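Late entry, written up from scratch paper. The run itself happened at the end of the previous shift, but nothing got recorded in the book at the time, so transcribing now.
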Amino acid sequence: MSEADYKVRGAEGAREAVPALVTLDVWGVPLTRAPRALARMGLDRGGARRIPGVTFAKMLGTGSGRTFTTRDADARHWAALIVWSDAGAAESFATSSVARGWQSICDEHARFTMRPLSSRGTWAGRQPFGDPIAHRWDGPIAAVTRARIRPSQWVDFWRSVPAVSGDLDHIEGVTFRLGIGEAPVGLQGTFSVWRDNATLTDFAHRRSPHQQAMQRTVDTGWYAEELFARFALLSATGTYGDQPVSITGATS
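Output as recorded:
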């Protein structure tokens, strides 16, 4: 499927255009440089959005995603999720001031390059991944979830997380997983890489812990805003946690 095949669907103005590419950059820094990384998070929030070709950008803290509390926080790893209207601009990100700033303090870097397959919900009132036209993808799948949790529901939500996270430990098809968030509490998300679409679908719709969590979401109204998106993972390069990250996606 070529970039030209991607288009806006639905009522005019109801959705944003499906982007050419989406990237997640994850930088690892020595703990002694964590204060500098935290400062960069603030400095780059606007800087990333001003890069030519960027339509949406979020600077993110990371964690294990096992409890979605401050206990999960990883002061060593920081991330940028960026949505690109221009594939060429995405490829030249390394020359931007944002990327150069992180390269000056990091000791490892992993990059995931993706193309949207499906997206439901909103992020900060927007639909950054548009509404992709469904098509077959036989390669690895990346998934992004993000939610703004109602303060009144924090405790109930946290109680539900360990069962779902623990179930993930028993799924062989998960090759990478990371908690992501714009804040330590309340704005929570995940990034994960799956062997294929069937494995992710089985987890999302057939495994009991996740099904129960989905039903609780409906019954209790945990989220003030939520988004679930799947992507064709085109490539993953670099290192994370001192381990190489190397995945090449299949062709559609």
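The CA atoms of residues 23 and 113 lie 5 Å apart.
(Scratch paper discarded after transcription.)
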